[in-house]
Amino acid sequence: MNLNILILEDNHEMRNYLKELVLKYHSDSSVFLSKSGEEALKVLKKYDIDLLLLDIELNEENKNGIYYGKKVQRKYPNTDYIIITGHTEYALLGYDLHAYYYFTKPIDPKIFKIKLDSWVERRIALEFVEKSIQVKTADGIEIIPLNKIIFIENSNRKLIFVTESKEYLVDETMKSMASKLDNKFFKSYQSFYVNLCKISKIERLENRSSVIRFFGVEKTAMLSRYNEKEFMKLFDLVHGNGACDEKE
Fold this sequence. Notes:
CATH 2.40.50.1020, five-stranded antiparallel beta sheet, elongated
């Protein structure tokens, strides 16, 4: 799933190790690395960061991770935190940030996976609030609620937004959609983004790809066999936590 995760850690080996762990368990996340607080602030200014892995003991005079964490909290309130420290007593300093979890070094990979998976599940649930997307069509600018979109198809360098009531021909690219859609959308095929809450049935084809059918429309989308494992994991997650039921 497409999440932006920033790692603020001044130790080169630990910084790369944390990146490896994140990508091992959530390979489709975008991971950004910062060795200083100022570098982290520049990343946050440029990208919407979902999670900040924050080292408390930074090699900076009079400034530790909590200093930058509070600064980020004031300016970017939607960013979550996981605190990392080499000393148990320092973890108490992170309570003001309402961190999701506190890790002490050395980090246990199994516990890291459990807590990261748990945070992702929580983040998905929080993302399932009504949002809208503004797109350019031949008729002008349209504002479409995300929970009304059933799927998006790439066709002849245009995108087709399929809803129950109508279809929109949109002047956008699949790449641009990655930052505009929320976490209930999954790129099931090179030319399809599907709304996981709108799926009624999945039918396997002879070539091991699958056809995705939806509630409310006859049109279908495709699911690549290479994306099936990640698709089923996210599909089970969003339906298991009841997030889809809130909007249907």
